[in-house]
Amino acid sequence: PVIPIHIGDHLRTMTIWKELFDAGIFVNPVISPAVPEGSQLLRTSYMATHTDAQMNRVLETFAKVGKDVGLIS
Q1: What's the pLDDT tens digit per position in 44-61?
Q2: Element (H or E) spanning 44, and its range?
């Protein structure tokens, strides 16, 4: 499935995308004009072949990056 991670800000979306990419996690940034201004997001997708360890790494990395950029506390 494709799961969107709503960010809502162009610069923050691109910053998170780059941080994730540098950490070895590939997501697609979706920014305006593909979405309305203020609705920027990261498009993630998952497969049944992803292992629990891979999913845990993704979640841990998202949490770290989200905290680093002030998206989550």
Answers
A1: 999 999 999 999 999 999
A2: strand 41-45
Let me know: does 42 contact 21? Beta carbons within 8 Å.
Answer: no
SS3 percent helix, strand, coil of the chain, rounded to 5, is 40, 20, 40
Q: What is the pLDDT of residue 59?
A: 96
pLDDT < 50 positions in the chain: none
In this structure, what token pair is assigned to residue 50?
């992803």
Evaluate the omega torsion of the peptide bond into residue 33 and state whether it is cis, within 30 degrees of 0: yes
| Distance (Å, whole) CA 63 – CA 57 | 10
